[in-house]
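Notebook entry, structure prediction.
Reason for the run: the old model in the group folder had no record of what sequence produced it. Starting over properly, with the input documented here first.
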Amino acid sequence: MTEHFTQKCSKGSFGSFKFGSVMMRTCHYLNSPDDALKIAESEILRRWLNDPISNIVLMDLLIESGRSKEAAEVYEKLFKSEWFFALRNPLIPILYAISLYKQGTADSFDRANKLCSNLVTKLIYKQKIEDIIAAFALKVKQANIARHLVQKREANSELSWNIMVQANVMQSHEGSSVLQRRILQRNQHHVYKDTFAAIQATYPDLVKSLKIKPINLTVEEQVLGTIHIEDKDHVEAKRKRYY
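New structure, fully documented this time:
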């Protein structure tokens, strides 16, 4: 019926009505990723998915359904077609980074590492994406890349500081004395429980001497946590947690 409507109204007054987001939200509500993909892959129906929200809801549904590979392909098709109107919505590249993180493969990490050079979004959202990719770098034991992505923000960002500490501990990049100074000068940053575990495994005496008390958070929980985007240039978008 939807295909019939599309064919009949493609040149009529209803032809300009964009209901791609309505279809995607319906699929999301029904938890039906297969139907959403059928719409996205249909020669007749996919023309409705030419707005950011339709693609955001589609990617969100696919990630929630454990289909991160298909979610990543949504972004890659948009990028290949140079649909920058959609790509400028910061939630789309953020969801792409998350979908690559969830895949956790060497190939997906390579694609994630290339993402920053292709971004067309604002700095604040680019930093969020860099944090996701830096956390991914920790996951695949690429400490140098993790450090490079967050080193400029560790003083002001608690998440970046924890990523930096974990990366340094991973490669024993800092001796215990340097790490001790970094911890003592961490401003108001809390130590996440996975950062605490990394320090304790490598420098157990340091944990005792500084009496470090971790909080019940991890880097992964933070990078996959709820994202709120409220910007005058974008429709407000909210995403659930993916862990």
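Summary: The chain has 15 helices and two strands.
The old model has been moved to the deprecated folder.
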